[in-house]
Write a structure and sequence with these properties.
Distance between the termini: 53 Å
CATH topology of the largest domain: Rossmann fold
Subcellular location: Cytoplasm
Helix content: 55-70%
Number of domains: 4
Subunit structure: Oligomerizes as a right-handed, spiral filament on DNA at oriC.
GO cellular component, one term: plasma membrane
Protein name: Chromosomal replication initiator protein DnaA
CATH class of the largest domain: Alpha Beta
Number of helices: 21
Mean pLDDT: 83
CATH superfamily of the largest domain: P-loop containing nucleotide triphosphate hydrolases
Strand order of the largest sheet: 4-6-7-8-5-9
Largest sheet: 6 strands, parallel
CATH architecture of the largest domain: 3-Layer(aba) Sandwich
Structural class: alpha/beta
Low-confidence stretches: 80-103, 447-461
Number of strands: 9
GO molecular function, one term: lipid binding
Shape: globular
Length: about 450
């Protein structure tokens, strides 16, 4: 197994810049448990968090491709430096075995996504309370919860917090956590293998709690919708718990069977809005504590002032700030925060959909008429999908706004977003193209038109 890890390192050495490889991949120390577990030891908490957020999924994918298995890579802190290779091996062999996981199926839950780690504010309090009530069998209207929010606002955190709570407190309950795309792929595989009876038994008889993410993926997929309807009816009759998530309200998802829409709307529907200022500061405070780093309050407030829409982006900015301070061996201050903010510049409202369309057209040599037209040529479709994705991601445009600006139907916009998400997972080249477009956007004149003022020192306690 160690030879496979060395091959993975070799792959990343060729893929990453030399400085990034030396900083984040080379220091990782691999070890293997008696039951086939694969551990990567990290030198400090911040290092572990950065690798988990930026490299872990890619490392796992390459390792699985090489081994043909489904090994999960587990990160942990390197408590004491190894004196030599022999001593290091002895230390690893003497580790206590990991506690076995409670019953579950589908994707592994992120153990960091708990109710205790969720920062509650005015924008998400109802969603938090509803999720907590459903998980804990408290007073709750029905057994179905539909969480809706734009990306990066916490719907996946709450969905997985429900699963983690149930696994901890009801250890014999089966929690199924997966995306709607996972469900569809598993059903298609079962059909091809003549294993639909096992598929139905698994989801209808073995599941106590179903956490289904990204249900808008089901738009227009009638056979998948029909099977899911039967599954949900069965689970509802057995009084099982159901949690659904999507960036869209159920009524906004086009080409959805009435029966499935009825299931999605049959319980509590709770939107999560962007956090207010005080909640954003609280989130940054919690994340800094998790990384065991002291960040001045005026710096946290400064970041919270300019990064307002996306919690994930705000936390990413904090990580970039901490990394820059550690790399440059300098204090965390407002000047450094402004350098990081210029890379994100989320406060700028000068950027428009038309600017993204124009840039994408220039890069792919596609005219505005072709981009907004009906051509299905591969180059044009790629440019169109990327323009839609960037408009959705950077400008937080709603489905209806994107449909109008790109002269498309709601379902076509959803399909474009799904195509980009899918290609990002499987193609490093495609990801590089998207990154190039993002860099071009972030260095454009319009992107930087709104300058960042130097704020006065905070007077808050």
């Amino acid at each position: 197994m160690e030879s496979y890890w060395e091959e993975v390192k070799h792959i990343f050495k060729g893929r990453l810049a030399s400085s990034a490889y030396q900083l984040w991949i080379e220091p990782l120390q691999a070890s293997f448990g008696n039951a086939g577990e694969f551990f990567l030891d990290c030198p400090n908490p911040f290092f572990l968090h950065w690798v988990r957020n930026h490299y872990l999924s890619d490392l796992e994918r390459e390792y699985r491709l090489l081994t043909g298995g489904t090994t999960q890579i587990k990160l942990r802190l390197l408590k004491t430096p190894a004196k030599n290779k022999e001593d290091h091996s002895h230390r690893l062999q003497s580790c206590l075995p990991e506690i076995s996981r409670p019953p579950s199926s589908g994707r592994l839950l992120n153990k960091a996504f708990t109710f205790e780690q969720f920062v509650v504010g005015a924008s998400n309090r109802f969603a938090f309370q509803a999720s907590r009530a459903l998980a804990g069998n408290d007073a709750f209207y029905g057994r179905t919860l539909f969480l809706t929010a734009q990306p990066g606002l916490g719907k996946s955190h709450l969905s997985q917090a429900v699963g983690n709570y149930i696994q901890t407190n009801y250890r014999h309950h089966q929690v199924f956590y997966l995306t709607a795309e996972d469900f569809a792929n598993e059903m298609v595989a079962a059909l091809r293998q003549g294993a639909m009876a096992q598929f139905k038994d698994k989801f209808r008889r073995q599941c106590d709690t179903l956490l289904l993410e990204g249900v808008h993926f089901l738009s227009g997929k009638e056979k998948i919708q029909a099977e899911l309807c039967y599954t949900l009816d069965c689970l509802a009759d057995l009084n099982k718990k159901l949690v659904f998530t999507s960036p869209y309200l159920p009524m906004e998802i086009p080409h959805l069977k009435q029966e499935l829409l009825s299931r999605f709307t049959g319980g509590v529907i709770t939107p999560i809005d962007p956090p207010d200022f005080s909640t954003r500061v609280s989130i940054l405070t919690r994340k800094a504590q998790d990384r065991q780093v002291q960040v001045p309050r005026e710096v946290k407030e400064h970041l919270a002032t300019y990064l307002t829409q996306d919690v994930r982006q705000m936390v990413s900015a904090l990580d970039n700030l901490l990394l820059k301070a550690a790399t440059l061996k300098t204090d965390i201050n407002l000047d450094l925060a402004n350098e990081v903010l210029r890379d994100f510049q989320a406060a700028s409202q000068a950027l428009r959909i038309e600017d993204i369309q124009k840039l994408t057209g220039q890069v792919y040599q596609v005219s505005q008429e072709e981009l907004l037209g009906k051509s299905r040529k591969k180059k044009i479709v790629k440019a169109r999908n990327l323009a839609i994705y960037l408009s959705h991601h950077y400008l937080q445009k709603q489905l209806k706004d994107l449909a109008r600006s790109f002269r498309r139907t709601h379902s076509t916009i959803i399909h474009s977003l799904e195509c980009v998400e899918r290609d990002l997972k499987v193609s490093a080249g495609f990801a590089a193209e998207l990154q190039y477009l993002e860099e071009r956007l972030q260095t454009s004149r319009r992107w930087r038109q709104s300058t960042l003022p130097q704020p006065k020192a905070s007077t808050r306690n």
